[in-house]
Amino acid sequence: MRFLANMGISPVTVVFLRQAGHDAVHLHEAGLDTLPDSHILDKARFEQRVLLTSDLDFGDLLAASGAALPTVVVLRLRSMVPDNVNRHLAMLLAQHSTELEQGAIVSVAEDHIRVRRLPIE
């Protein structure tokens, strides 16, 4: 699977995803630290990447757009340390890989994963 990590996501998580066999890129590595949110969504869509973020704005932007892609994973964890994020991402991938590939807004919290398929009507 292909991932794009927003600025609030640790580069350590990008390395974790790569080690698990995924194609993962961090905005900072690409020199896109200040890219506007709408352009980040466009980049993820164009490159067919799942956007990883802790920013709630992306879910709202995507829902309002009526688009079916990209998938946005919003991490709403009490602790955003890489080990905790990586553990939750591993669970997400094991349980919801089909939804991630087909287009969804996914909210990941400590005690649950909520998946809303796209487009949202």
Tell me about this structure:
- The protein is α/β, with parallel strands linked by helices and 121 residues long.
- The protein has one domain.
- The chain is 40% helix and 21% strand.
- It is built from 4 helices and 6 strands.
- It has helices at 11-19, 37-46, 57-65, 82-102; strands at residues 2-5, 23-26, 50-53, 72-75, 104-108, 113-117.
- Strands 2-1-3-4-5-6 form a 6-stranded mixed β-sheet, sandwiched between helices.
- A hairpin with a 4-residue loop joins strand 5 and strand 6 (113-117).
- Helix 1 packs across helix 4.
- The model has no long low-confidence stretch (mean pLDDT 96).
Summarize the structure.
By secondary structure, the protein is of the alpha/beta class.
Shape: globular
Helix and strand content put the structural class at alpha/beta
Helicity, as a percent range: 40-55%
* Topology order in helix (H) and strand (E) letters: EHEHEHEHEE
Low-confidence region ranges: none
Task: Provide the spatial order of strands within the biggest beta sheet.
Answer: 2-1-3-4-5-6
Total individual domains: 1
Our count of helices gives 4
Tally of extended strands?
A: 6
Overall pLDDT: 96
Biggest pleated sheet: 6 strands, mixed
Distance between the termini: 26 Å
Radius of gyration: 13 Å
Proportion of strand residues:
15-25%
Topology (elements, then pairings):
Elements (H helix, E strand, L loop, with lengths): L1 E4 L5 H9 L3 E4 L10 H10 L3 E4 L3 H9 L6 E4 L6 H21 L1 E5 L4 E5 L4
Parallel strand pairs: 1-2, 1-3, 3-4, 4-5
Antiparallel strand pairs: 5-6
Helix pairs in contact: 1-4
